[in-house]
Amino acid sequence: MKDKIKYIFFSLLLALTVSGTFYSCKNKTDENGETVIEETLTSGEITILTDNTISPIVEDVLTVFHSVYTRAHIKQVNKTEKEIIQALLNDSASVAVLPRKLTSSEEKYFTNRKITPRVTEFATDAIALLANSRTNDTVVNLEDVLNVLRGKPSGKVKNLVFDNPGSSTVEYMLKMAGVDKLPESGVYSVKNNEEIIKYVHDNAGAIGIIGIDWIVQAPEHLTQYIDEITVLGVDNVKMDGAEKKYYKPNQSNIATGAYPLTRKLYVLNYQTKQGLGMGFEIYISAREGQRIILKSGLLPAEIPTREISVRKKL
């Protein structure tokens, strides 16, 4: 029922936009005489801050969104999780895409100002562990990785590589390891996600920690590197008990919970009006947006259904 209501709402939004009756889209001019497009659900200009580790999927959805709604101009700015949270709390941003919700203490800033956010889950992604293809192992024990983060030496894991100390992948893995900060040895950070891929490609023994979106939807110029990188299988002790199995971060393993390193993705909308942020949020969580996510290799929040008409043969 929820999916049906969302689809009806999205279809109505699309139909009304095409017919030109959705809200008022009259152009205005500023003090310099330049045209300003009024902000509605499908028109205007806003900036959406996006977590670096999931930026490819947001870019894909925005490309299609802009092709449908030509009066909408959404600027995607990619930052670390810490930078995005700070921007939200400093009022320098009102719409963000993150792999987590705000904590209760972070949310209190908006509660005190009587701002109720629209928080929309739209997908589940996975954190992938990468190794150089020259490495013999194609699997890794999660506990060995977590021990490195706890500052304990591991004979099986040489070092771990993150994209940035303020990255959401760092926060996720630290929480899983039960520690507050990275150890002084055995863990490195580079400039960005592209550099993780290149570093692992050039350094046998290193394990790169990256959002799976950067592997399944890698920019074309990184293909030559990814072809020589192995995505490691990871064990899931909680699921398997005594029987040791290893799972790759693919759609089916994300859906069943077999792969242990998964996280929900959200659009956090703190706009105090029904603006373009809400339009994007509705689009990415409705049927068309969910289809894009399904094709990307991530797991959509709601699997789009296919309707097949069967005609009786005369």
Automatic annotation (TrEMBL):
PROSITE patterns xrefs: PROKAR_LIPOPROTEIN
InterPro entries per UniProt: PBP_domain, Phosphate_ABC_transporter
Annotated keywords: Lipoprotein, Signal
Signal peptide residues on this chain, from the entry's feature table: 1-23
Lipid biosynthesis as UniProt keyword: no
UniProt domain PBP: residue ranges: 39-281
UniProt source species: Flavobacterium beibuense
Entry protein name: Putative ABC-type phosphate-transport system, binding lipoprotein component
Lineage: Bacteria, Pseudomonadati, Bacteroidota, Flavobacteriia, Flavobacteriales
